[in-house]
Amino acid sequence: MNSLKLLLSGGSPALPYAGEILSRAGVEVVQEPSADTAVVLLPVPSFDDQGNIKGGGSPESLLQELPKNVLILGGNLNHPIFQDYETVDFLQDPDYVAQNAAITAHCALREAMDRLPVTLEGQSVLVIGWGRIGKCLARLLQGLDARVTIATRKESDRAMAAALGYTAISLGEIQSRDYRLIYNTAPAPILPEEDSPALKIDLASRKGMGGKDVVWARGLPGKDTPESSGALIARRVLSILKEKGYVL
């Protein structure tokens, strides 16, 4: 029996690690499309600003060489060219998004520790946003004995943050000069361009902090911890293949 053929398409540091794990699991991982390709794995997210596959060519060129029943895996797959294909979008997958948030938080912590001349113990740290990344990041910071403040719009989120031992404030109460380190996880304008002694790290998909001194740390897992990111992708691919009844 022929093994399932999976095409790695595009380029990201995480994909080779994912491919290695999938290969060990019995998947035939290939680099060139063919008529018997069963699954395509794209980078996560899959497209650049020009609408091309990250590290690859156009999606139109790719699909010309693939069968119509191919399964396409990736991130942000709302491209109209895929409307007649079966797709699984990892960025809409709760398991992937939650685990990726944890990896992102670890990367964000390392980003700060590489840039600050002090340890985080006893330092005042502000985390803007109470989504998946914000929660994971706050927990890690608390474990390092940082003094963590959570800033968020929703009163219910502030109540939960306070119940977990964090200082909780509204967005309107932010005074950036009070902190040594500020993380933003909210994809909306939060802090204007202003002078501040704080190290500012923006993790959001759209910039929320102004100023030339802001570190825009988008897509950290794939860049800083590609092996961890690739392992996560591979685990989800294997789970999806099992759910859909593919035989390896």
Tell me the major beta sheet.
6 strands, parallel
Radius of gyration: 21 Å
Shape: elongated
The chain-level structural class is alpha/beta
Order of helices and strands: EHEEHEEHEHEHEEEEHH
How far apart are the first and last residues' alpha carbons, in Å?
A: 10 Å
**Strand count:** 11
CATH-assigned fold name of the largest domain: Rossmann fold
User: Oligomeric form of this entry?
Assistant: single chain
Number of helices: 7
Q: Can you name the CATH architecture of the largest domain?
A: 3-Layer(aba) Sandwich
How much strand content do the residues show?
15-25%
Biggest sheet, strands in spatial order?
A: 8-7-6-9-10-11
Q: Unreliable runs, pLDDT <50, ≥5 residues?
A: none
Helicity level, as a percent range? 25-40%
CATH class of the largest domain: Alpha Beta
Mean pLDDT: 92
CATH superfamily of the largest domain: NAD(P)-binding Rossmann-like Domain
